[in-house]
Amino acid sequence: MDLGINGKRALVCASSKGLGLGCAQALAAAGVNLVMNARGTDALEASAQAIRDAHGVEVTTLATDVTTQQGQSALLEAAGQVDILVTNAGGPPPGLWSDWDRDDFIRALDANMLTPIALMKALLPQMSARSWGRVVNITSQSVKAPIGVLGLSNAARTGLTGYVAGTARQVAGTGVTINNLLPGIHATDRAASLDAGVCKAQGISLQEAQAQRCAMIPAGRYGTAAEFGAACAFLCSQHAGFIVGQNILLDGGAVNATL
User: Fold this and answer.
1) Is 217 helix (H, G, I), strand (E, B) or coil?
2) What value does the CA radius of gyration of the chain take, rounded to a whole number of Å?
């Protein structure tokens, strides 16, 4: 399918690896020029060059912490005019409700709620002025079904979801759509980190921890960054202009819900 976005320009956050990289690769395959961001330079440059080689698109890179105001300002200056924004940031560490204090919540909110909001506030006016834009926020299945040990993520990402619900409907008439993608377990570093925590807590092997998690997923496996990226690229396409303010699960059926 021709997504109709060849020649567009996308800013993809946290895109040196994992789900962010999957989104960047899928957009590049559709002919979209990229601005890629991550904290680490080496992985970012390697991923960017691989995309250039594979798809022949322009790729601008900036290694910075986008969860800080300085990082956001630098990234927005480097990005310039963009048509597509994909927000993404690593999730807060797992724990128990009794482990977290105010500072822990502030860090979670900065990374997983306030940073996407700041980027949207900066870029939505120019998208609306051009009567076209796409925003996809990578959140989590915990927005639909909270995960006990991820209380920080549950709180911050749900706050972002509430913001998007209203904002998406305010800008839809200008040709700009905002939607959220809610990943379940995918084969990424984040999953490896969570699986390692299960290994330590239960005294089991990594293979056993993964088997336990797969048993809770009707699809019987972890998702891939490539299929996640394909879903993101479709939401960014010309064909998705009537999808507004939605929270779309990519979890292999793990969240057991009718709606």
Assistant:
1) coil
2) 18
